[in-house]
Amino acid sequence: MSTAGKVIKCKAAVVWEPKKPISIVEIEVAPPKAHEVRVKILATGICRTDDHILSGSIKANFPVIPGHEATGIVESVGEGVTNLKPGDKVIPLFLPQCGECTVCKNPEGNLCEKNDLGVPRGVMYDGTSRFTYKGKPVHNFFSTSTFTEYTVLHEDCVVKVDAAAPPEKVCLIGCGFSTGYGAAIKSAKVQPGSTCAVFGLGGVGLSAVMGCKSAGASEIIGIDINKDKFPLAKQLGATQCISPLDFKKPINEVLFDMTNGRGVDYSFEVIGRTDTMIAALASCNMNYGISVVVGAPPSAAEMTFSPALIFTGRTWKGCVFGGLKSKDAVPQLVSDFMAKKFCLDPLITHILPFDKINEGFELLRKGKSIRAILVFGDEQHTRK
Ligand code: COD
Ligand code: ZN
Fold first, then answer.
1. What is the spatial distance between Cα 268 and Cα 347, in angstroms, rounded to a whole number?
2. Distance between CA atoms of 131 and 142, rounded to whole angstroms?
3. Cβ–ligand 1 contact at 49 (below 6 Å)
4. 176 burial class (0-12, 13-18, 19+ CB within 10 angstroms)?
5. How much is the pTM?
6. What span, in angstroms and rounded, lies between the C-alpha atoms of 120 and 232?
């Protein structure tokens, strides 16, 4: 029986207020309005940013349904939607690509003006939510909200991908993988034969390592205080791995020693700390080095650094979603994955049923997972 045009009752994970566990309850999901689509979620990853909602360290409007890294199937479409139809496999886009704003029209821009990052509205473009709990509105998050069996997305915030793509893997292309990989290939534009340093070897840092490798870097130095991260980093392309804890001198000086006093061509900060952002900047060549900030700093953080670091020519930049235009990049990355140009398996340490969402967050907080993926429906099993 078709559900199109009807309210769907389904399970969703709601955060009622900061610092409280997420709870799974039955919500109502209204049909999509004009230029919106309703999507059945198949698999969704738990990203550090979702945990920031639970801990209250980033702003959100409560109650809220987090989750922004997923794969789903279109259930129904609203009026005026022409490029998607029921049954299409899709990836929600936490960074929209409206195609019309100044940023979308700039070839180098990717932070579409319609985005709901920063100070979030937590509602659809028309100012209302499609989610209710016992008739009371529940906010959405990052224009996506994927910790639910069904969500509603504006057509700017969703894209069709290869129907054969495995949902529990390609969901990573919706956030973590693209953030790191894009930082290397798009934001830094790593060149063949270059030297790179990646600070932080979590899932996003490892994706940056993969991006450096696929761009043809000849030397990729992984840096992490946790040496357990080194074997996987080497498997994915790091040529050497070092821990700052093993050296008396600052890590930027160590990296200069390792590169004949020149510094690396590209460095990436994928930890989210201000001290390592400066260390990464100081590690790249004083003239043509490019350093990319990938990790989000704590919201109140400020930093002090010597202007001499950039005066000599270094470029210091940041990027969201790897600097990639979401709607253009995501289907292409899924095709590249299907063509085996990169792998996602090493980033997926756990697959859990949706009901075990709190366990998934615990694994993340204890540093035991790289990515835990929640699956809906029958394909529920635990790996590793
Ligand atoms: N020196 C070296 N390594 C360190 C240090 C240090 N001082 N401190 C921690 N580390 C290592 C840890 O051991 C760990 O291996 C790694 O750094 C961090 O990895 P994870 O697993 O905690 O995190 P990731 O890879 O999943 O994500 C890291 C980000 C910093 C990228 C993420 O938290 C973030 O800030 N994302 C926001 C960026 C963004 O684009 N957001 C939009 C949507 S999410
Ligand atoms: Zn994320």
1. 18
2. 14
3. yes
4. buried
5. 0.96
6. 36
If you take atom 12 of ligand 1, which residue's CA is the nearest one? 200
pLDDT digits (tens, 9 = 90+) for 255-298: 999 999 999 999 999 999 999 999 999 999 999 999 999 998 87
Distance CA 289, CA 266 (A): 6
Atom index in ligand 1 nearest the CA of residue 275 equals: 7
Residue range 119-126: average pLDDT? 94
Residue nearest to atom 37 of ligand 1 (CA): 296
pLDDT computed for residue 383 by the predictor: 42
The residue extents of the domains of the chain are 9-21+51-76+83-154+323-379, 177-322
Question: Among the residues of 224-273, which ranges form H helices?
Answer: 230-236, 251-258
Query: What does the pLDDT average to over 211-220?
Result: 98
Fold classification of 9-21+51-76+83-154+323-379 is: Quinone Oxidoreductase; Chain A, domain 1 (3.90.180)
- To test the pocket of ligand 1, the residue of 48, 93, 230 to mutate (highest count of ligand atoms within 8 Å of its CB) is 48
Give the nearest ligand 1 atom to 364 CA.
Answer: 21
Place of tokens 């590209």: 266
Q: Please state the atom number of ligand 1 nearest to the C-alpha of residue 371.
A: 26
Nearest to 37 by CA among 3, 85, 1, 69: 85
- For residue 378, what pLDDT is reported? 58
**Nearest CA-CA partner of 373 in 98, 20, 45:** 45
- C-alpha–C-alpha distance, residues 366 and 96, integer Å: 32
| HSE value, Cβ hemisphere, 13 Å, CA-based, for 50 | 33
177-322 topology per CATH: Rossmann fold (3.40.50)
Phi/psi region, residue 367 (left: phi>0; alpha: psi -120 to 50; beta: rest), is left
As a residue count, the chain comes to 384
